[in-house]
Amino acid sequence: MLARRLFAAALALGLALTFAAPTQAQVLNDTWFVLKVSGKGYLIDDVSGEATKTKFKTTAYMHVLSEPVALKAAGDPPSQSYDIFIWTQVDGEWDVSYSGSWELFGTDDLLFVADVDPAFYTGPTSYFAGYHTAEIKNKFDKEGHLKKSTYKSLGAELIEGTETGAESAIGGYSIKGKSIDPSKLPFDPALFK
User: Which helix (H) or strand (E) holds 124?
Assistant: First the structure.
């Protein structure tokens, strides 16, 4: 009887620790991605309501940094929390066009992000933003260190944007990207700290 009680207590303690344990390792911490972003849709004039076709295309750089590991409650899917910074170029100058906190779900090999809404600036008054869901595929070397990652949107809805500030954009967009070495960035991120 005592053995059963000790086993039950140990099992309960083990389950409690399992449900309160930190999430997976932060495999993407301090990873840079180059992203090719393109979209198309319509610009709707804010005064007349007339719609004209438009296209968007830009290259962006995304920096992924780990947030402190949070404890998860029982029943929550495993996830990893990251601070995301997206850099775009406007008139020859690079700057952060978006920052936010993202929860990535899945395994270290294949992670997903859902319904995130970054903004991409393409000129002094032009930008586009919208929601997308993406997959991130990771490959590791023999020692278990991150070797490379790819980023691909699975669906993206353009919900706002403008070219001149006098119209609103609507449509869709896509993102394809891959991890890169920070030495290949076209700017020095240390200058912006």
Answer: none
